[in-house]
From TrEMBL:
Residues 143-154 have a biased composition (Low complexity). Residues 133-154 are annotated as: Disordered. Pfam families: Glyco_hydro_65C. InterPro entries: 6-hairpin_glycosidase_sf, Glyco_hydro_65_C. This is Glycoside hydrolase family 65 C-terminal domain-containing protein. It comes from Alexandrium andersonii. PANTHER family: GLYCOSYL HYDROLASE-RELATED, PROTEIN-GLUCOSYLGALACTOSYLHYDROXYLYSINE GLUCOSIDASE.
Length: 179
C-alpha cells in the first residue's frame, strides 16, 4: 500500500527514475495462481499476513488510476499530466484507463510516449471539452476521439453547457441533474 503512494508522488513530480521501483513493488503482494492480494509479499518473515488484503489492492489500483493516468480531480474538472509508459519500469508501450466515469459520461484515456488520446464512450451529461494548453477547447463527442501531445490537459464542462442542463431540469424536461 505504501509503495503505491510513493509511486504516485514520483509520477506526479516527473521523477520517473524514482517512480519505477515503487510502482514495481506494488506487484509483489499479488500471489499466484489467482492474484490474491496478501498483506506481505512472498518471502517476508510475516508472509502472508492478512490474505485477500483489499486495502493493499486498493492502493495498487490507485497507483494505476492516479499514477499512470496522471489524473487529478478538482472542482473545475479532471486534470491530467500522464507519465510516459516507460515510467512504469515495464515493457508497456501504451497505458489505457478504460471506462472511468465523470459527470454521467464513461471515458477512456490512452497514453503513449508522445501522445494522449481521450474518448467519450457513452452516457449522458453536460457537454465535455478537452482542453490542452495552447489550443482551443475541443468538444468530446460520443464515440469520437481527441488527441494531443502527452502532457497537461483537462476535461471540463464546455463553456455555457451547464446552464442549459440546469434550465431543462428546472423546467421539468429532464429527470436528472446534469450540473
Amino acid at each position: 500500500m505504501t509503495w503505491s503512494m510513493f509511486a504516485i508522488g514520483w509520477f506526479s513530480v516527473g521523477n520517473y527514475q524514482r517512480s519505477v521501483p515503487h510502482f514495481l513493488k506494488g506487484f509483489h503482494n499479488a500471489q499466484p495462481p489467482f492474484g490474491v492480494w496478501t498483506e506481505y509479499p512472498a518471502g517476508a518473515k510475516d508472509f502472508p499476513g492478512c490474505v485477500n488484503f483489499v486495502t493493499g489492492a486498493g492502493g495498487f489500483l490507485q497507483s494505476l488510476v492516479f499514477g499512470t493516468s496522471g489524473m487529478r480531480m478538482r472542482r473545475d474538472g479532471l486534470h491530467f499530466d500522464p507519465p510516459p509508459p516507460s515510467a512504469t519500469g515495464t515493457a508497456a508501450r501504451r497505458l489505457v484507463l478504460h471506462s472511468f466515469h465523470y459527470l454521467g459520461w464513461r471515458l477512456r484515456q490512452e497514453v503513449t510516449e508522445a501522445s494522449a488520446t481521450y474518448e467519450l464512450l457513452g452516457g449522458s451529461g453536460p457537454q465535455l471539452c478537452l482542453e490542452v494548453p495552447g489550443t482551443e477547447p475541443r468538444e468530446l463527442q460520443p464515440g469520437g476521439r481527441a488527441s494531443g501531445p502527452r502532457g497537461r490537459s483537462s476535461i471540463r464542462v464546455c463553456q455555457g453547457a451547464a446552464r442549459p442542463a440546469l434550465q431543462r431540469r428546472l423546467s421539468g424536461q429532464s429527470a436528472e441533474v446534469l450540473v
